[in-house]
From TrEMBL:
This is Alanine dehydrogenase. The active site is at 96 (proton donor/acceptor), 270 (proton donor/acceptor). It comes from Paenirhodobacter huangdaonensis. The lineage of its organism: Bacteria, Pseudomonadati, Pseudomonadota, Alphaproteobacteria, Rhodobacterales. Its EC number is 1.4.1.1. One of its GO terms (molecular function) is nucleotide binding. It holds the Pfam family AlaDh_PNT_C. The keyword Oxidoreductase applies. NAD(+) binds at residues 134, 198, 203, 220, 239-240, 267-270, 298-301. Residues 149-297 form the Alanine dehydrogenase/pyridine nucleotide transhydrogenase NAD(H)-binding domain. It is an enzyme of class 1 (oxidoreductase). InterPro entries: Ala_DH, Ala_DH/PNT_CS2, AlaDH/PNT_N, AlaDH/PNT_NAD(H)-bd, NAD(P)-bd_dom_sf.
Amino acid sequence: MKIGCVREIKPQEYRVGLTPSAAQEAVAHGHAVLIEAGAGIGSGFTDADYTAAGAQIAADAAAVWAAAEMVVKVKEPQPGERAMLRPGQVLFTYLHLAPDPAQTHDLLASGATCIAYETVTDRKGGLPLLAPMSEVAGRLAPQVGAWALQKANGGRGVLLGGVPGVRPAHVVIIGGGVVGTAAARVAAGMGAHVTVLDRSIPRLSYLDDVFMGRLTTQYSDRAATAELVATADMVIGAVLIPGAAAPKLVTRAMLKTMKPGAVLVDVAIDQGGCFETSHPTTHENPIYEVDGVIHYCVANMPGAVARTATQALGNATLPFVLALADKGWRRACLEDAHLLDGLNVHAGRLTCAPVGAALGLPVISGVEALGL
Ligand SMILES: NC(=O)C1=CN([C@@H]2O[C@H](COP(=O)(O)OP(=O)(O)OC[C@H]3O[C@@H](n4cnc5c(N)ncnc54)[C@H](O)[C@@H]3O)[C@@H](O)[C@H]2O)C=CC1
Ligand SMILES: CC(=O)C(=O)O
Ligand SMILES: [Mg+2]
């Protein structure tokens, strides 16, 4: 198969969909790999690294989109990229369609087969292609939140860990999955007082066991959320209902009860955000203020630590890239129901039920898309 990889064009996105070592594996499996010139530079990989791995370098993105049977990326395709997708072509990347009707419309119109990293599942009920970036974004969340809490950035001037004789910051994390757990580890490690809210009692038990008193857990309902948000210096939004638009758990009314200069970090922004007042921001301009509360809502947080993130993502995607290339998308999905869960769009039809529910669009099942 001809596998293509383009340079990411989302603002300040420095990750790349294929590492030179992934390209080398694909070449060893008998595939041709075409990389846009400069695609790996932001992650520290040169064109020469890819050439040494057996890949070919294309002068521009258009050449890659034209030649590749499958394009492997990181972020959702931008409008100009969507215009280059064609029927029969496979796109393997993050899509986050539920909050994005314009992208959904374009992917349906393209006739392409679009497999989203974030809805591929595993045997344990996890999301193996979201998890590595959730680990990264979770670890980053207290770090960027601590920066926003600094006075010069509009925050309330509170040091996360406090100092002897002065209380630490209170960090409230809504959602104790991969992002929430990673964020809790870093926030607790920086000395903050941490509370995690989740709807899953097994998850709260797990956190209680693992953190051994370093954090407090609480069942997530409206009353608990309102009470904790009012006491927080930082709230980290880390909920997920796979494929679906994030529920709005912190309302605008709650903002009025918060401390002036408190910080909201909405990691769930890629699924639309779990705070009513969230809207996506970029690394260039990451924060804004509403009712005296600082919001950080960058939808591609791992792009800030592109080298680490590219390697972590590449480790997780490689087996799926190889399966798709070796077998073709149809047989790869037929033989792996977890990969089939990643199928969001095929030949003008939507195949992810939560996306259909969020956007009010008809869906067919992945099995129907396979023609079974
Ligand atoms: N902004 C960015 O750059 C990035 C964003 N993300 C996003 O972060 C979000 C979280 O991802 P993961 O931690 O991997 O998901 P996960 O599935 O591991 O964890 C989500 C948790 O939310 C909990 N939850 C669901 N509804 C809830 C509610 N009403 N109240 C409290 N908890 C609730 C679930 O029980 C689960 O424990 C996703 O939207 C993901 O796409 C992930 C990586 C990067
Ligand atoms: C998960 C995601 O959207 C990201 O890593 O950018
Ligand atoms: Mg994202």
